[in-house]
Amino acid sequence: MSETAGKMDEADKTVSQNGQLQNVDKPVVLSVSHVGKYFRLPTEQATGLKMLFINWTKGIKGYKEQHVLRDINFEVHQGDFFGIVGRNGSGKSTLLKLISGIYVPDAGNIEVNGKLVPFIELGVGFNPELTGRENVYLNGALLGFTRDEIDAMYDDIVSFAELEEFMDQKLKNYSSGMQVRLAFSVAIKAQGDILVLDEVLAVGDEAFQRKCDSYFASIKKDPTKTVILVTHDMSAVKKYCNKAVLIKDGEVIVNGDKDDVANRYTLENMRADKRDTDNDKSGEYPTGLNERVPFLHINALSEQILSRDDSFRFEVEYQYDEPNDYYLAIAMHDIKRGGITYDTGANKIKLSRHGHCKVKFEVPLKLFNNGDFKLVASLRTQNAEDSETTDMVAFTNDDNCCIFAVRDKRNRAYALLNDCALRITMLAD
């Protein structure tokens, strides 16, 4: 828990940076305090007691410790819709299993106040040889509900899944979509105080997803229900959650404001994708560079998550020693939608300084909807035969380009241009 959060008076209500009322006056239903978890990975196997004793005398453990979580701290209050976010391998699934009681922490402690219902994987515990009805009761029993409690929630589960006519058929005769709908309905209709969901929002067909969306909108307003959601979908975090944490390499790096968490997650993904795409390290120079231009890099000078009111500032840093004039060409790529958003093209940028140089630029963002963008640059010289043409000498590979994102609540995500840039109006007859 952050120092600021630790000083909050539980009798007071506070408002987050995005203006949303937080549930700090509500009781804490989940407290994660200084939690750590590690696993022992065997490095060699002793073949007998003699080898085990020899290894012990030599101080050889025969395993290494993999620390998955380190000093995790946060609190969830009653009524929170709390998001846990992180890239694959960050430790969030391990954290979820600790919260659900599947694992025991090696350090720190976890306190749960209320009935916690975990759904780490939809359909776990379902038996294809049993009917839909029998599977509902089996799954409910596995979650710790009595038969009377399952009786009370059964009709709601079946109604939400829209499977009234199929509940006495064996599960193996269900389509995959029907099975997912039944499992999801058991998950969200289970009458627990704390609902733990792991990547289960995008289920079923479009109509069922709209139904789920309406359900989560209603549960978000219920002050007695607490939801802990693990997801890679940042639109879901911004839409449903009032608080969130971002985990990276087993540590919490952002805690609290959902927009801060979602934006930082987007940036972490963009950085990781950028690192992963340039794998050709076999040559003397990185891909795109050579003896004439051994260095060409685009550096961000401003924040990399911006609103449409901002301009993205960057610099192109390069090494070019030849005495002739030369040019820079810069293109802006749309990472998610595809295509080139803008290219300097014929407006080539003529340069004359030589050696190790830096040139600064900026891109206004007022025209664009939300999106992820990449800037690439090439250094070019004049074609000897055609004055209108330039020849590329070097270019920035994916490791040397620059990424940034536009995130603005006034924008949409579908189209590239926002309403400030273009609006279609109806003409009068």
Describe the structure.
- With 429 residues, the protein is of the alpha/beta class.
- The chain has a domain of 112 residues: Coagulation Factor XIII, Chain A, domain 1.
- Helices cover 24% and strands 31% of the residues.
- The strands form four sheets. Strands 11, 13, 14, 15, 17, 18 and 19 form a seven-stranded mixed beta sheet that branches.
- A hairpin with a 7-residue loop joins strand 17 and strand 18.
- Helix 5 packs across helix 6.
- The N and C termini lie far apart (62 Å).
- The relative contact order is 0.11.
What can be said about this structure in brief?
With 429 residues, the chain is of the alpha/beta class. It has nine helices and 19 strands.
Task: Fill in the keyword field for this structure.
6-stranded mixed beta sheet, transport, 7-stranded mixed beta sheet, alpha/beta, disordered N terminus, AAA+_ATPase, globular, Coagulation Factor XIII, Chain A, domain 1
